Amino acid sequence: MSDFLTGIAFFMIIEGLVYALAPSALKRMAEYLPQIPENQLRTSGLVAVALGVLMVWFIRGV
After folding, report:
1. DSSP state, 33?
2. What b-and-e string marks burial along 4-19, b requiring 16 or more CB atoms within 10 Å of the CB?
3. How far apart are CA 23 and CA 17, in angstroms?
4. Would you state the pLDDT for residue 49?
5. How much is the pLDDT for 19?
6. Nearest-5° angle of CA 34, CA 36, CA 16?
């Protein structure tokens, strides 16, 4: 459970840094997001999930 909470904490740190360091870029991205087809967003999300799982798998050595 502590690993899960550590992951959530890192996610919050990264999200916070984006808002703190590049708020205008984040706003532009939010305006552009509705123009991207749902299939492309879904595919990008699944690729990100798969890469994240692979990274954890290799880091943990499981």
Report:
1. G
2. eeeeeeeeeeeeeeee
3. 9
4. 94
5. 94
6. 65
Tell me 34's DSSP state. Answer: G
Helices (H), the chain: 2-21, 23-32, 38-60
- Mean pLDDT for each consecutive 10-residue tract of the chain (62 residues)? 89 94 94 96 96 90 76
Exposure of 44 in the CB half-sphere (CA atoms within 13 A): 7
Phi then psi dihedrals of residue 10, to 5 deg? -65, -40
| CB atoms inside a 10 Å sphere around CB 51 | 10
The 8-class DSSP code of residue 1 comes to: -
Domain locations along the chain: 2-60
pTM: 0.71
